[in-house]
Amino acid sequence: MAEFRSSIPLPYVPDDLTIPQFLLDDYKHPIGEMRKGNNDVWFIDDSTGKRFSYGEGIQLKARTNYLVLGLASFYNILDNDVVLIISPNHIDYIVATWALQRLGAVVATANPLFTTEELVQLLDMCKVTKIITDERFLTSVGPAADAAGIPTSSILLFDISEIRTGVPITTISDLVNEGQKSTDEVPGRTLEPGGARKKIALIFFSSGTTGKPKAVALSHYAVIASIIQMTALQRENGKPRGPGKWALLSEDVITGLLPFSHVYGLVANVYWACFLGLIVDVFPKFTLAAFLTSITKYRIAHLYLVPPHVVSICKDPSIEFQDYSHVKLIFTGAASLSVPLMHKAIDVFSNASIAQGYGMTEIMVAALQSPMQRINDGSCGQLLPGIVAKVVRADGTLARPNETGELVMSSPSNALGYIGNDEATKATFVDGWVHSGDEVRVTETGDIFVVERLKELINVQGIQVAPAELEDHLMAHPHVADACVIPVPDEHTGELPLAFVVPSVAAKKLMKNGMSEDDVKTEIQKHVSDHKVKDKWLAGGVRFIDSVPKSPSGKILRRVLRESLRNNGIASAA
């Protein structure tokens, strides 16, 4: 099979605009439907019910510009400064990204549940100069900042409940208020033609098989291109809004539940929704009862989720008493949604269509999207406009239809590479092509099915966990002589990490002298839970084995252990 691409043409992508210029200012793209009237609501704060409009009431554009002035006056944000945001979802999370981008700064985002140890790595990797966080996470953020040499005065908070000694009291609202008093003009970054292609806007962290997180640098152009690609597909070859049943119509309400620290949550969900004129209901955190209530309360029409959310919803006994007939679309990503689960979801959301997508941070979220229909065949769908792809077999030749090989793609939304990791950049980004690391099969009609993750990442609630990272950490424990971590399926999280461990001589001696095997395993699990974010805990369990299967070159053969589990009918481990 030769290179293949979408039959839908990619509309013009401006290469001289920053993201806030594209979304907030007077620019209007032909296929966008952004509502910029003063009273047009853009966001709802799900926890309070407050509505944030473009120009009146709680003003998003004005709030962004006031924050720009406050940051410029009090924090001397310089061009290309990297500011790390570590927080649950928040309205001002979005405002802060726009304000920082107006000043030419780079916004990096991190999972708020990262440990201090993990945060120190990220701060150093990206040369972060300032941090924006939530007061609740200062216990991990504070020590990480100290270790990285970032002063307390360079930590800002979204909200603060009380003033405490040693806690920074400057909040985003403080700076907005100061900016409102200013008579200065709002500074803004003006880019030359082509400048948006090189200017970094966002950094997201993607785990790799090397065991360390990789900082994916995304340009303003890549983000804008991705928004236009997703919109062009939704518009179906120029049709204004697609089938009325599931169409994403201006003023429809869409969930803002996915974490903004992830490219799917911030770009594919929120930024894109703004471009389409949708109203985003921003959830600070997911609790099933509150989420189900909000679907009805705010008449949410479009649910952007990950498969574990769908599982939780379908298993909740209260759903049979709810009317969700207004829900038009369920879209999932980050992991595969099985066909049986699609059927369960349709039983709950009787008028909804279902779609799922495939993407990776390195190619700016979405690369593939399945058709919007009642039930699809479980494929990831077809390429978005502007993306060219090929399937490459192990011998370097191109695969024929229905043969498997690695998915390799090129797109206007390609990332610039990995910050501070030239080796990984050269391995993944080759002559304009992004190597996905995923083994796929492509049908004659262009539908793509993911067969195997060559990168061997573990998807825990849509969060990528690198087995190599956990294996490296396990090897530091005295009970462990060798280790291999693989995924096991879990109904609620999608997958969980399971460790196969070769006990050390010391561990064998302890067990011989009376320590139980379960106690040794518990200590090994605790070694991970004490140092890693919860998604990386060995919730799939620990199993002792005599040796870890490896290739002649020493590469761990995780597939051998996965197949062993499958052949023995084991769905989980203890």
Tell me what the structure shows.
The protein has 574 residues and is of the alpha/beta class. It has three domains: 4-10 and 215-453, 3-Layer(aba) Sandwich (Rossmann fold); 57-190, Rossmann fold (3-Layer(aba) Sandwich), CATH 3.40.50.980; 458-567, 2-Layer Sandwich (GMP Synthetase, Chain A, domain 3). The chain is 29% helix and 24% strand. The protein is built from 16 helices and 28 strands. It has a seven-stranded mixed β-sheet with strand order 8-7-5-6-9-10-20, sandwiched between helices. Strands 1, 18, 19, 21, 22 and 23 form a six-stranded antiparallel β-sheet that branches. Helix 10 links the parallel strand 13 and strand 14 (329-332). Helix 4 (116-126) crosses helix 5 (138-148) and helix 7 (220-234) crosses helix 8. It is globular. The two termini are 44 Å apart. The relative contact order is 0.10. It comes from Collybia nuda. Residues 469-555 form the AMP-binding enzyme C-terminal domain. This is Amp dependent CoA ligase.
Poorly predicted regions are: 237-243, 570-574
Structural class: alpha/beta
Largest sheet: 7 strands, mixed
Number of strands: 28
Mean pLDDT: 85
The CATH class of the largest domain: Alpha Beta
Strand order of the largest sheet: 8-7-5-6-9-10-20
* Oligomeric status: single chain
Under CATH, the homologous superfamily of the largest domain reads: ANL, N-terminal domain
CATH topology of the largest domain: Rossmann fold
Determine the strand fraction and express it as a percent band.
Answer: 15-25%
- CATH architecture field of the largest domain: 3-Layer(aba) Sandwich
Question: How far apart lie the N and C ends?
Answer: 44 Å
> What's the overall geometry?
globular
Helix content: 25-40%
Tally of alpha and pi helices = 16
Q: How big is the Rg? A: 24 Å
Q: What number of domains?
A: 3
Domain AMP-dependent synthetase/ligase: 41-418
Organism: Collybia nuda
Keywords: Ligase
GO molecular function, one term: CoA-ligase activity
